[in-house]
Amino acid sequence: MSYDLIVQAAKRQRPHNRELERLRSRVVGSEVLGCCEVLDFIDEGKPHLLTICLTADEVMAEAAYAELVAVAKEFGLELHDPQAGAEVDLDNGDRLPRMY
User: Fold this and answer.
1) pLDDT tens for each residue of 32-75
2) Strands 37-38 and 86-87, how do they pair?
3) In sequence order, what are the residues at sequence separation of 6 or more whose Cβ sits closer than 8 angstroms to the Cβ of residue 69?
4) What is the pTM (predicted TM-score) of this model?
5) Is 60 left (phi over 0), alpha (psi -120 to 50) or beta?
6) Where in the sequence is the domain holding 12, given as residue range(s)?
7) Tell me, what CATH number does 19's domain have?
């Protein structure tokens, strides 16, 4: 099982290249996100920045989800849940996406 989440620019405003590099380093260097597959960084002016596939292990997925929420808040980004067809409410305190 894989549960995808898309990290994207808020309000269609992409971070500058320096911030994209800092984001890349933060995600790739995260021990917690090491259990997840990081698919793509898109640098072509689209709001979609990367896709993260949460692991099937629920305990590890919870930690990874909390880390993604923290990263999104830190960088002023959004998390889009394509399974639910909506943005994740970063302040709702859920331990996992509702459809996980």
Assistant:
1) 998 898 886 665 555 678 889 998 999 999 999 999 999 999 99
2) unpaired
3) 79, 88, 90
4) 0.86
5) alpha
6) 3-87
7) 3.30.70
